TrEMBL record:
InterPro entries: PPR_At4g14850-like_plant, PPR_rpt, TPR-like_helical_dom_sf. GO terms for molecular function: RNA binding. Keywords: Repeat. PPR repeats lie at residues 148-182, 183-218. This is Pentatricopeptide repeat-containing protein.
């Protein structure tokens, strides 16, 4: 397997937890040097199988090779020792960190058996998403044992913020399958995703579902998303109809501004009465 790169080896180590140590040794014999992601996958496998001796050996190797400067490796070691029920070692790794990130605190708190809480998990998801680390957001979400409405909404919003509309829709479907009720923020993300993907019928269905099934009162932002969705799809008469039916929401600029191009299209195609409603709120 001398054609394998560190990425190939790391992928195999992360997937095959039973043979992770064997694969790691084979990688070294193959002359491929590991990276921090390799150790994260390897330490995770060791943690699950509770291989204490091997875990200590890998920890020692990380010390010698300078990998303890990598926060993801240290966080994995904190979790590993916690799973070994060796909290003094877990705390020692934590205390030796030069900079303690939120994820490090979460790892330690979880190891001590304290409840991190759904709000903290959601805040962590949101923090990573805003930093552009969608992979870290995904990892925190996958490692959250009891995924609350906060966590689901946070990960859906994270993907929406990164423009990954397909993942937004898939996650929303999973959320419903798990029996977790979405809130108004969840629907804002999913409606925006439907708008960008041109999924008008699905968007309209979800909008009505939000009102009828979940009894959520649409906000100006929800209406704005719907009009934008219809405008993008060229359904200007439907957009005009929605504006007319909810003209009080438009009045005094209570609704968020639409995409400028769609607003122009609606104005060009609307009747004079609807233009007056859109611009002034007066019927």
């Amino acid at each position: 397997m001398n054609d394998c790169t560190v990425v190939s080896w790391t992928t195999m180590i992360s997937i095959d937890k039973e043979d992770a140590i064997f694969l790691y040794n084979e990688m070294r014999l193959d002359g491929v040097y590991p990276n921090d992601v390799t150790f994260v996958g390897l330490i995770h496998a060791i943690s699950i199988r509770k291989l204490v001796e091997e875990g200590e050996m890998i920890h020692g190797f990380c010390i010698k090779t300078g990998f303890l400067s990598k926060h993801d490796v240290c966080n994995s070691l904190i979790t590993m020792y916690a799973k070994f029920e060796s909290m003094p070692d877990s705390i020692k790794v934590f205390e030796e960190l030069n900079c303690r990130e939120i994820i490090s605190w979460i790892a330690l708190i979880s190891g001590l058996g304290l409840e991190t809480g759904p709000i903290i998990a959601a805040a962590l998801l949101d923090m990573y998403a805003k930093q552009g680390s969608i992979c870290e957001s995904k990892r925190v979400f996958s490692e959250t044992p009891h995924k609350s409405q906060f966590a689901w909404t946070a990960i859906i919003s994270a993907y929406a913020g990164h423009g990954d509309n397909d993942s937004v829709i898939e996650l929303f479907k999973e959320m419903e399958k798990e029996g977790v009720k979405p809130d108004s923020v969840t629907f804002l993300s999913i409606l925006a995703a439907c708008s960008r993907n041109g999924m008008v019928e699905m968007g309209r269905h979800l909008f009505h579902s939000m009102v009828k099934e979940y009894h959520i009162e649409p906000s100006p932002q929800h209406y704005s998303s719907m009009v934008d969705m219809l405008g993008r799809a060229g359904k200007l008469e439907k957009a005009e109809e929605l504006i007319r039916e909810n003209r009080n929401i438009w009045f005094h600029g209570f609704i968020e501004p639409l995409s400028f191009s769609w607003t122009k299209s609606i104005l060009r195609s609307s009747s004079q009465d609807s233009k007056r409603i859109l611009l002034t709120g007066v019927d």
